[in-house]
Amino acid sequence: MSYAGDLTPQQAWDLLQSDERALLVDVRTEGEWQQIGVPDADELGGRAAFIEWVTPLGPNPGFLDELGATGLTTGDGRPVVFLCRSGVRSIAAAQAATAAGYGPAYNVLQGFEGDVGPDGQRGRSGWRADGLPWRQA
């Protein structure tokens, strides 16, 4: 099942700021949150959740249960914005959420730190590079 669509990091931030029901869900790993940083949702009244899509042992079998534990209800029409490192895992998470009845579910293009550049490094695109609020976890 398809998800609602892709948003640039700025479009995602704008949606989160303009719709007080919208929830940001970061699906990276705990290690990524700790080492790289996280979106700072303080300006959103704390409307952010951190749920691993993939754990060190493989796919997170409790992902949808954890998503429901955030207060989302299937069929409520509450926007959910999924974010990962580069915008790949968040597509899968948005698809799973949509199939389960959550959303509309969106993917953030380029994720938190974008694709690997020609120099082998990340961080030249995405949420953090676009200057959106973030903090060290």
Characterization of the model:
The protein is α/β, with parallel strands linked by helices. The chain has helices at 9-18, 30-36, 63-68, 89-99; strands at residues 5-7, 23-26, 38-39, 48-50, 54-55, 58-59, 80-83, 105-108, 134-135. It has one domain: Rhodanese-like domain (Oxidized Rhodanese, domain 1), CATH 3.40.250.10. It contains four helices and nine strands. The strands form three sheets. It has a five-stranded parallel beta sheet with strand order 1-8-7-2-4.
Q: What characterizes the major β-sheet?
A: 5 strands, parallel
SS element count, helices: 4
Q: What sort of overall outline do the alpha carbons produce when their principal axes are compared?
A: globular
Q: What is the number of beta strands? A: 9
First-to-last CA distance = 33 Å
Low-confidence stretches: none
Radius of gyration: 14 Å
CATH superfamily: Rhodanese-like domain
Question: In the CATH classification, which architecture applies?
Answer: 3-Layer(aba) Sandwich
Secondary-structure topology with pairs:
Elements: E1 5-7, H1 9-18, E2 23-26, H2 30-36, E3 38-39, E4 48-50, E5 54-55, E6 58-59, H3 63-68, E7 80-83, H4 89-99, E8 105-108, E9 134-135
Parallel strand pairs: 1-8, 2-4, 2-7, 7-8
Antiparallel strand pairs: 3-9, 5-6
